[in-house]
Amino acid sequence: MSALRRSPALLMLPACLLVTGCLLLPIAYLIGLSFNPPVVGEVELTTTLTLRNYARLLDWFYASVLLKTLWVSIVTTAISAVLGIALALSLWRTPAQWRGLLVVVVLAPLLVSIVARTFGWMLLLGDAGIINNALIGLGVIREPLHMMFTQGAVIVGLVHVFLPFMVLSVLAAFDRIDPAIPEAADTLGAGPFTIFWQVILPLLNPGVAAGVTIVFSLAMSSYVTPALMGGSSAGVLTTLVYQQLVVTYDWHFGAALVAVLLATTLVILGSVLYANAVRTARWMGRR
């Protein structure tokens, strides 16, 4: 007990060991496997090192899939950020007696499995789905719109899945803002747009950054929604990883894809968080 009082960091040791054993070691094993010669069905690490698995990624097909994955994730994150800020602002201004109910409504999609939600969107967006049938019945269109198995369908599905995470992150930042601050800006003559853009939004930076980190990470690693709603024409890197690990049993190349996906996600998120930190510091007058 005295040791814990002298070094409270020891309390974090069990969690660190759990994360290391359940997350870091498997990832390290996969990365090590990516540098081994490709042998179908083999998952044992060897001392033979090669870059053949990464050399295959220089093919334009894999580069295009990576760019497509980035594009879908960035657009999903941007839409989620805009909608999340708007929803969180509405919840922040909602009277206390209604706020709890509205938060439950926003979180309701998390109570349904991703597969069920994805199939629900398939019923809405399909060629013979509810939206097309309604538009044809109203005479708006003659032929059904092809909305399923496109990048747009994947983005819609991902936004629906990940929007609650963005709302919760931004709402937590809103709750830290003193309501007197925008009132003071209004008293000094600032308009609604100026109050939001120059007063409220900078104070939301921590929440927005947290939401962007969560949504972008989940979008980059999402598999179910792209696989069901994207089809072959809108495949992302995670579907290629699944094919290599489960269908063709090429674990070495699949591990290389995992390494590239992880490295790309970390680099982009690190850049975004650094830029956000610099912007926050400038706003606070530290730089």
UniProtKB/TrEMBL annotation:
Matches recorded under SUPFAM superfamilies: MetI-like
Domain of life from the UniProt record: Bacteria
Ranges annotated as spanning the membrane: 9-31, 70-91, 98-116, 122-141, 153-174, 194-216, 223-245, 251-277
Mode of membrane association: Multi-pass membrane protein
PROSITE patterns: ABC_TM1, PROKAR_LIPOPROTEIN
Keyword set, alphabetical order: Cell membrane, Membrane, Transmembrane, Transmembrane helix, Transport
Location of the ABC transmembrane type-1 domain: 66-274
UniProt subcellular location: Cell membrane
Similarity section: Belongs to the binding-protein-dependent transport system permease family. CysTW subfamily.
Xref: PANTHER family: ABC TRANSPORTER PERMEASE PROTEIN, INNER MEMBRANE ABC TRANSPORTER PERMEASE PROTEIN YDCU-RELATED-RELATED
Protein name, per record: ABC transporter permease
Natural source organism: Roseomonas alba
Taxonomic lineage from the root: Bacteria, Pseudomonadati, Pseudomonadota, Alphaproteobacteria, Acetobacterales
